[in-house]
Write a structure and sequence with these properties.
Shape: globular
Number of helices: 2
Number of domains: 1
Radius of gyration: 21 Å
Strand order of the largest sheet: 5-14-15-16
Largest sheet: 4 strands, antiparallel
Low-confidence stretches: 270-295
Mean pLDDT: 89
Length: about 300
């Protein structure tokens, strides 16, 4: 994609000069559709969260869902922060794969030291080239001001500024739901029934959050308020993944799928005059069109 938020002003160069904003890409969704013409599809919701080894591995951080206000969704009813609830019929899995010796995680722990360091910064994880932000502590997550917005500017600013702060690409990808209770089913059968037809589909948006460096964009000047990428010499690449699990009542088995996002801050590329000359963030994903057919 090309970012159109060009920064303009007296003495500001033309070309690839952009606002140093926190950006959100909201172009992608997961769509679950019952392909059958006349039979309902049942999605099992009988699993509890922390005891569901197909969804949660205790050796890796929990993943985060976000709500439609771009806030991290958590539950603290158990005295510790959980990022999913019991009896969901669609889950986000916190690991990619498991071998005999290794769990390949999908997120990294943001920790819970925000009040002690007087900063909500999580750039140490946002700058990871492969992990989304996640949570591993057994305590209740406690941002300063209880600010769980992922668009909180302080989360995207380095606590200790360095030369690397000017070029540090920050990214994280998360599934979206208004509230986790919307994907919970606690009826007697513990089955979410999905009727046939496109209008009955379950839609889970996927948000890609990114910022081009870890400096404060409320400060004036180059690399703070705006970025000049006209002479960018290196491409920075992030690969972020989200993984989902459903359980079809008819088959009584798990169905999992992973979506991979390649997020690149591209170096200067020479184009012919007939080709778009605004390369900025490129994102591509592996896609698969999968419908569920009830029996």
């Amino acid at each position: 994609m090309c970012i159109r938020d060009r920064f303009k002003g007296t003495g500001i160069p033309t070309g690839r000069v952009y606002q140093n904003n926190i950006y959100v890409i909201k172009d992608f969704v997961v769509k679950i559709r019952n392909k059958s013409i006349d039979s309902p599809l049942g999605l099992l919701s009988s699993r509890t969260y922390l005891s569901n080894g197909s969804v949660y591995n205790s050796n890796t951080p929990q993943i985060f869902w976000v709500n439609d206000q771009d806030e991290l969704i958590t539950s603290e009813t158990s005295g510790q922060t959980k990022t999913q609830l019991n009896y969901q019929y669609i889950w986000s899995v916190n690991y990619d794969s498991i071998t005999s010796n290794t769990v390949n995680k999908l997120s990294e722990n943001i920790g819970n030291q925000f009040n002690s360091v007087d900063s909500n910064s999580i750039t140490s994880v946002l700058s990871s080239s492969e992990f989304n932000i996640g949570y591993y502590d057994n305590t209740i997550l406690n941002f300063i001001g209880n600010n769980k917005s992922i668009l909180d500017n302080a989360k995207w600013i380095d606590t200790n500024i360095s030369v690397n702060s000017t070029t540090k690409l920050l990214t994280s990808v998360h599934p979206v739901v208004k509230k986790l209770e919307d994907i919970v089913e606690t009826n007697t059968d513990q089955v979410r029934t999905l009727d046939s037809g496109n209008n009955n589909s379950i839609i889970i948006p996927l948000n890609i959050y990114f910022k081009m460096n870890s400096l404060d964009n409320n400060q004036p000047g180059l690399n703070y308020q705006y970025l000049n990428l006209n002479k960018l010499k290196n491409t920075v690449k992030h690969i972020k993944k989200v993984k989902f699990l459903l359980e079809n009542e008819a088959d009584n088995k798990n169905f999992t799928f992973t979506i991979k996002f390649n997020i690149n801050r591209s170096k200067v590329i020479n184009f012919s005059p007939n080709v778009l000359t605004e390369p900025y963030i490129q994102r591509t994903i592996f896609t698969r069109d999968t419908d569920f057919l009830s029996s």
